[in-house]
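Before a computer can learn anything about folding, someone has to put a protein's shape into writing. The three-dimensional part falls to structure tokens, numbers that each stand for a local backbone shape. The protein below has been through that process, and both of its lines are reproduced in full.
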Amino acid sequence: MEPIHISISHRGSIHPLSLLPEATLDYLHKRLEELTSVAPENQKLLYKGKKNVPGDATVAEAGLKDGTKVQLIGPTAEELGGLKATESEHQKKERILRERAQRAHVKVRSTSSTPSADSRYTFHRIEPLPHLPNPSSARDLLNKLANDPAIRHVMSKHQFAVGVLTELAPHEQPHLLGLNVNAGQAIKLRLRTDRYDGFRTYKEVRRVLCHELTHNVWGDHDNNFKELNSTLNKEVAEFERAQAAGTHFLNDPGFEAPQSALEAEAQAYVLGGSQVLGGASTSSATDSPEERRRKVLEATMNRLRKEEQELEDRCGTSAPEQ
């Protein structure tokens, strides 16, 4: 059989490959590991005509054809090794502190026998990248995200814990907006603009954070992921609206009960008065109030779908292959 020629794009480098149509995806992933140092279980391939098939399927069955351009996303072994080394050092310090506390025999009064939810379900470390401009501002933004009342609310409710909250360097991974390493070991967020002349808006970065928190539970961007991610965004919007209104209930009579998590999320944004996600509507002066609200809701749902698709396309997280 005639070989197929494909090109792999990874962080600005192009790697041409020639494969027989009967070659398996497992073989392709091993070749890519040799070229890029990205382990097979961390590789995510993006290309037109992609099909969900097992690793022993052929590249032809996976939708790869002659001339296909493929984008490879995933952390390298060196990056993961650095994270593990940092985590190991942190664990060593915690062990030393525990041993000191035990030797001191200090008795502490407590009203609870278990750690508080705030201490367990949180971001345990904040680490801006010191080699990038203005790291103090990056730290302030990461701290604001970590202490955002709505984010803390959903983390406690869903029992999410993250080891390290840090940032992505635009010049190193320009195609990524977020990355979740090992289901919560670390979350990396794109904080800065392409030219390092400022930071992305807070709500944009926080929405990426909700996306990456969902990867604590679900690896692939399947229906389970979409449902939970939409629920998290809805709960963030509801929490903020409840805080502003002094209540924990959505009781606007102009909306019917939502039929899906996405609709509930959009409804929460509309009721919260969001100007970022509402989008333009086609309402006219003759529309009834209910019709205008319906059109605004539809426009908001469309905007949310587009934004979430962009996050999926620019997310470096994927589930390990079985």
User: Anything to note?
Assistant: The chain is about 45% helix and 15% strand. The beta strands are 4-10, 13-19, 44-46, 69-73, 123-127, 162-168, 178-181, 186-190.
